[in-house]
Amino acid sequence: MARSTITQKSLLSQVEQLGKYVGSTPLYPIRKLHQNEKVQIFAKVEWQQFGGSVKARPAYGIIRDAIRNGNLTGTEHMLDATSGNTGIAYAHMAAALDIPITLCLPENASEERKKRLKALGVEICFTSRTGGTDEAQEKARQLVSEQPEKYFYADQYGNESNWRSHFETTGPEVIQQTSGELTHFVTGLGTTGTFVGTGQRLRSYNKDISLVGLQPDIAMHGLEGWKHLETADIPEIYDHDLADELRPVSTEKAYEFVKKAAREEGLLLSPSSAANLAGAVELAEEIDEGVIVTVFPDDASKYREVMEDLF
Fold first, then answer.
1. 127, 148 in Cβ contact below 8 A?
2. Which residues pair with 192 in a beta bridge?
């Protein structure tokens, strides 16, 4: 029997088994980094799932739905643009499912991320250091237009399965873990799937929950995966009417909170996680009372160069 026939029969059951190891991450209380005693801050510890980051959720949802729809059979290359974390999550799952994968990645992605992708068998197409994920997307679209028969283009920036994965999992988890008492949800904007999916689920639960999106304060920033909406290509899945507020976070502030989180909370955070924490702490000092939930997309393990420079 041909490999493709065997794969078609088994892929869906295999990917559903992987789903047991995605999501259900703990909510961690931040106790020392803000002064407002009437405000609680919690963060979803997203690196504690298969794939090692918050991107495990959309990566799983995109792959599962593509298999269900017959768009991914296991014979063509899965293709997407990534700044790192989604690609790593894709790579873990593709390796487990025996699906070949090609990723377009900016050259300035951390060395640790590049090493992980290569270890997981990814075929990497590097794009320029200055073009970011926008250029990586352009390259992915070029590849699929040149060889449509070779690739399944996952398109995390435009794939509805991205935000739906958070609607189905992250949102309900946050509601359950806070006993429905959260008042604010705060997170950074990259593909925007975390914000859009979780935000829509929270809004359907309680329209009074405030949804705060975070973005870099300038176009030339150092927060991998984040988008400065005024100057970047805005993802197709972004809901412009969802956010109650958009707040800027500087790269410098994020790196400051990398140090603070390590020394005062015992957490080794990535710059993106620290930026989310910085935004949540700033908000906590401005409101009278409440329960703020944010997201720690990943830990410091993929950012060794950054850690070496900071400590």
1. no
2. none
Distances (CA, A) of 199 to 28, 168, 206, 239: 19, 11, 10, 10
**Shared fold status for 10-50+169-310 and 56-153:** yes
Cα gap 186→184, rounded to integer Å: 6
| Domain coordinates in residue numbering, the chain | 10-50+169-310, 56-153
Report the predicted TM-score, pTM, of the whole model to 2 decimal places.
0.93
C-alpha span between 297 and 52 (Å, rounded):
9
Q: Which residues of 181-199 are buried (b: 16+ CB within 10 A; e: fewer)?
A: ebbbbbbbbbbbbbbbbbb
Q: What sign does the CA torsion over 300, 228, 28, 92 have? A: negative
Q: What is the pLDDT of residues 155-193, one digit of tens each?
A: 999 999 999 999 999 999 999 999 999 999 999 999 999
What DSSP line would sit under 289-301, residue for residue?
SEEEEEEE--BGG
Return the CATH architecture of domain 56-153. Answer: 3-Layer(aba) Sandwich (3.40)
Tell the CATH topology of 10-50+169-310.
Rossmann fold (3.40.50)
pLDDT, average across residues 261-282: 97
- Type and span of the H or E element at 244: none
d(CA 170, CA 61): 12
| DSSP result, 119-178 | HTT-EEEEE-TTTHHHHHHHHHHHHHHH-TTTEEE--TTT-HHHHHHHHHTHHHHHHHHT
| Res 8: pLDDT | 64
Element (H, E) at 185: strand 184-188
Both structure tokens of 194: 């975390």
pLDDT for the residue 299: 95
In this predicted structure, the answer to whether residue 6 has a pLDDT above a threshold of 60 is no
Q: How many CB atoms lie within 10 A of CB 243?
A: 20
Q: Using alpha carbons only, what angle is made at residue 105 by residues 25 and 239, rounded to the nearest 5 degrees?
A: 55
